[in-house]
Amino acid sequence: MAAPPPPPAMWAPQKEGVDQILQLLTEYRAPGANQQQMYQRLQQCARIPDFNNYLAAILCDGDGVQEEIRQTAGLLLKNNLKTGWETTAAEYRAFIQRALLPALGHASKLIRQTAGTCVSMAARAAGPAGWPDLYPALARCVESGDANHVDGALDAIYKTCEELNGRLDVDVPGLQEGSPAGLLIPRLLTLMANPDSATIRRRALGAINLMVPCWPESHAKLMDTYLQGLFQLALDQDNGVRKHVCSGIVGLLYRAPEKLTPNMREVITYMIDRTNDGDEDVALESCEFWAAFCEADLERDTVETLREFTPKLIPMLLTNMAYAEDDEEVLQAEDDEINRGREDSDKDIKPSFRGTKDKGGGLGDGGGGNGGGGGGGGDDDDEYGADDDDEASQWNLRKSSANGLDVMSNVFGDELLGMILPIVEQRMRDPNWRLRESATLAVGAVSEGCTTGLTPFLPQLIEFLVPSLEDPRPMVRSTTCWTLSRFSRWVVQLAFPARPGDPPPATAEQGKMFFDKIINGLLRRVVDHNKHVQAAACGALATLESEAREDIAPWLGPVVTALAQAVHAYQRKNMRCAFDAVSTLAECGGDALRSPDVAKALLPPLLQKWESGGDAQPDLYQLLECVTAVCAGVGLGAQEFAAPVFARALHLAQTQLTLREAEIRAGANNTDFSYVPDHVICALDLLSGIADGLGNAAEALVAAHADALRNVIVACVSDPHSPGVRRSAFALVGDVAKSGAGAHIIPSLPQIMECAAANLKPNMVMAYNMSTCNNACWSAGEIAAAFPAEVVAPYAQTLGASFVGVLQMQMIQRSLGENAAIALGRFAMRCPEQLSAGFGELLSPWCGALRRLRDGVEKEHAFAGLVKLVQVNAQGGVGPGLVDMMNAIASWQYVRSAELHANLMSVLRGYEQLLGAEQWGQLMNALQPAVQRKLGNFASTNQRN
């Protein structure tokens, strides 16, 4: 990645530059302006090295400029800081930081708050130690006594705590109090007790609450002061203060429950009262207490304290779970019932975000697949029956109450049924549909925690719930879909017994009958006329698909037909739900999907959507994500469609990359900002899906487009701006290598491997780039597995060092560590001589990761590399790492490869001879007894456990 250009020693804005940007901002805000085009021009300007400095100057020093224009400059600055801080030169960063601080005390509240937003984003990007001047400046502001400075500082502190997830407990060199939290908490405690201003009390308390999870040990005694402050504000007249009191108590449950334990009865009583508070925000915040209480690390005696309150609490939660008369969600669903087929409006469509495509991760034979990209149907906490895309479907008291009941049922179990079932039974017969719906929701909420107690009633419940799918009220149909999905695991286990202790065959037949009723009922709702019900049915079907997996095969025909009909008929908002259900089926349906008939049913309506909407349609990446899942899932069944889809996906990527290059050349003068990184990502993912699905049959496609494909891959793995583009490009590299078509990318291996190593440098192994690091690791390992030693050898030392560096890092993502261990083993398997010199250094971290791998081909490859290194440099393994090697070998449950098993036996015997009896005995004594036994029996007990 190119380093930012060196800035001048002291930057200052030029009048001509300020005027040009002000003109752009003015045009952007002008009535009737093409805001999308203007915004794209402003985004293009972000590539100018000092553009953000001009935005900061306009926001903070733009006297005489309209406040709205200054605010727009600040919001653009915030967005640019979020993505471009790392590539901003140090002197430019310093200018922005210096400019923002005085603006926190500006006379205009709009300017203060916008500056606070930018401060929080810069603080997040720099980290607590990267802007040491910030926190003393904020402390001075809150102590200044000036209303504007206090207001601006509290706003900035709160937003900074949000951006940093409260992590202000980090030591900052030169800060007398040690950490920003240590500096700010005492001052905020003082403001929390301010008798004159509820706004100051509210903001100070809100900021402290965010720091509670990371309260610094150096200020532990102040937590008592904080707790006393919460109690003193418990009955504050300001609703916002009471809301933050409830939030603070919930935070203490997780961070320091022992502080609340002496007064727990009083706290529970207070929270019950607040759950009935006249202010809905206070009631909602207090209702979060019940789930938090059950999830917190409390002594059993303390947990038992809640039991005596359940007779009062449970009915209250059930009451809160009924829809209010004016609930916006209900009004929308009922309106959809009347106005069937009405077109979605733009305001109905909420933004959505791509899942990451993490590859590999040591998942044994199932490893190497796309992770995080589809389905999602298995989320049991799916908004308590709500449509996630619905603007009205925000977290509210009804959902919080259901969540509280859900979590409490996991603690108190079946004993709650005595309080719940009489109310549920009464409500299920009630003519008021709101009460019937709340009873259905309650059954779903306790479905996991009270499974044992509900089991005798489940046949009756299923018989009641399935007809409720036909209820005339859309919210009853919708919630019934969700509640049935909560019983998916139970029904699947009943219908498809697979393990000792599972239901007997007669019961299995009953289970299949239930499964049939549920899936057919859900399929009818998938094609419901009501959009709200459609969304709930698709989510429930996705959950059932993910639980049933390949057992769904006998119902595959009706499922595919209903989903194809949904793709054909749904409007834009619910189309995403249909895509999700199709993707989940493709990822979970198993071998039954690998059929041309399935491909012919699902791909034509999806490809027709692509054809009719073109490459500029707003939901292109969701559509292509679904096409990708289907192509990968149906495998060779998609061969009829593969060639044109592969060509079109490659063309989409090429077109976008051409636009990117044109925009870079045009700079700020470009008015046609049409490059969309997400379109490149979904095109790359689709190419990956086809290569993965076709396997060896992909070779002809790759060969036909080899030059263009290599150019796209090289351009994307080296993209300096988008981690997502790099991530998907590395996934494509690995899938092409796996498919047997890897020979066609060999000419570009130097660039690909250089970029892989660059993405594994310590400064790149960051949260924002983690999936890219993961896929870079995985793809390098797939290349090593696919190519002979002479192809891999030139990259072994550089990438080997990168893998070791990853393994030596603390607190890395598990999948990244596993992929690094596998990739290192594959390189060692091909060219151990290049890695043998550092064998002793890499052994401990490598074997620590190897022992966590699941048995399978990837683990076999990794251990084959270990064997090769031992054969080349056995002496290098003598040392502290040898204990880790023994633990890693003992981690095998069953070594399927007879050759590898024999080689591992040779390793054990070889070290026993090399060390001699005395040192070998000392080594064995350093191991856990279970490990000793496994190694002692390794030769004779290589059988499945």
Characterization of this structure:
- By secondary structure, this protein is mainly alpha-helical.
- It has a domain at 12-126.
- It is 67% helix and 0% strand.
- Helix 4 runs parallel beside helix 6 (109-126) and helix 28 (556-569) packs parallel to helix 30 (596-613).
- The longest helix has 28 residues, at 639-666.
- It is globular.
- The model is unreliable at 1-8, 362-382 and 387-392 (pLDDT under 50).
- Residues 338-360 have a biased composition (Basic and acidic residues).
- GO terms for molecular function: small GTPase binding.
- Residues 337-390 are annotated as: Disordered.
- Keywords: Cytoplasm, Protein transport, Repeat, Transport.
Properties at a glance:
single chain; 945 residues; mainly alpha; 67% helix; disordered N terminus; small GTPase binding; cytoplasm; Importin_beta
Q: Strand portion, in percent? A: under 5%
Number of strands: 0
Unreliable residue stretches: 1-8, 362-382, 387-392
User: Residue share in helices?
Assistant: 55-70%
Regarding quaternary structure, how should these chains be classified?
A: single chain
Mass-distribution shape: globular
Radius of gyration: 30 Å
Work out the helix count. Answer: 45
Structural class: mainly alpha
Mean pLDDT: 89
